[in-house]
Amino acid sequence: MNARTEPQLLRQVSNRHLDSLEEEAIFILREVAGAFERPALLFSGGKDSLVILKCAEKAFGKGRIPYPLLMIDTGHNFPEVTDFRDFRAQELGAELIVRSVEDSMRRGTVRLAHPGESRNAHQSVTLLEAIEEFRFDALIGGARRDEEKARAKERIFSHRDSFGQWQPKAQRPELWTLFNTRLQPGEHFRVFPISNWTELDVWQYIERENIQLPSIYYAHEREVIERKGLLVPVTELTPPKAGEEVVTRTVRFRTVGDITCTCPVASPAANASDVVAETLLAEVSERGATRMDDKTSDASMEKRKKDGYF
Fold first, then answer.
1. Where does the record place the Phosphoadenosine phosphosulphate reductase domain (predicted)?
2. DSSP secondary structure string for all residues of 224-244
3. Is 22 in contact with 205 (CB distance < 8 Å)?
């Protein structure tokens, strides 16, 4: 075995588990199409939803995904991500439905405590309104169990009651990949095809499948502020506070959400292979390292999920 082929073979062996993860995701996506009347795929343009979209493309064929893509827009998203969202949906010929938190604010169903409050948690209201508007009975999302402790409790087919709420003690068993998809009027499911994937799995799959991502997932120069152990991006929505020093750092985003609560990490990783190498050494989860809104109990993930969050 020569020196050039050995690393390639080692990488092939280490990626074999991705075949079974992909197979499971495709099975779940097809199960949703067969079991529900009005499903939709939650699509933000972020890496996890792009991985699911790739699996859906393999499951049904390009231009043949049998459910629409749904985006709940806070109005405070990174433009690189929303632009890529629109590009990818158009490229696939998929129907893209966008509903905005700002519309909920105009209706009076969302009220901010102050103008600078993060809208991230308020997506729950807009999401539930979209479910009612389109009568969706299943929503496919990109949540993974390794992201956060509340998500580790959740089933792949996560039942939501008629109020859109998640009840951890009422989750249905999923033995031998048998999913109970029975619904009462007004209820729906959230379905997570990559629930068993890790952040490393996602990046290895992105590398293997050569999946395009928004540019902010890779190293770029950005003005940031060091605040409470996080690198807060300097934007109109997140300006520096008195006494804080603005510095330019080479950063990338591990996860992407609302500008007001998502931070990058220092990184020179310029491609998926570089990110895989970094992720192998990561000691903190992506949400733990980058999300300001997970730091307070009032905005805890479990509370938000019980209120109808993704």
1. 39-263
2. EEEETTEEEE--SSSPPPTTP
3. yes
Q: What is the CA radius of gyration of the chain?
A: 20
- Nearest partner of 217 among 262, 271, 136, judged by Cα: 271
From CA 76, how far away is CA 62, in angstroms rounded? 30
CA distance 74 to 132: 19
Q: 51: helix, coil or strand?
A: helix
Beta bridge partners of 249: 222
Distance in angstroms (rounded) separating the CA atoms of residues 203 and 125: 31
Q: Is 21 exposed, middle or buried (0-12, 13-18, 19+ CB in 10 A)?
A: buried
Listing from the earlier edge strand, what are the strands of the sheet with 265-266? Answer: 230-233, 220-227, 246-252, 265-266
Q: List the alpha helices (DSSP H) in the chain.
A: 5-14, 17-35, 47-60, 79-92, 101-107, 123-134, 149-152, 199-209, 272-281, 286-290, 301-306
Residues of the chain with CATH 3.40.50.620: 5-200+298-306
* 167 Rama sector, left if φ>0, alpha if ψ -120 to 50, beta otherwise: beta
The rounded average pLDDT for each run of 10 residues, N- to C-terminus, in the chain (310 residues) is 48 76 96 95 95 96 91 93 93 93 94 84 92 96 79 80 77 76 88 94 96 97 93 93 94 91 94 94 69 52 59
Q: Read off the pTM.
A: 0.87
SS3 content of the chain, % helix, strand, coil (to 5): 40, 15, 45
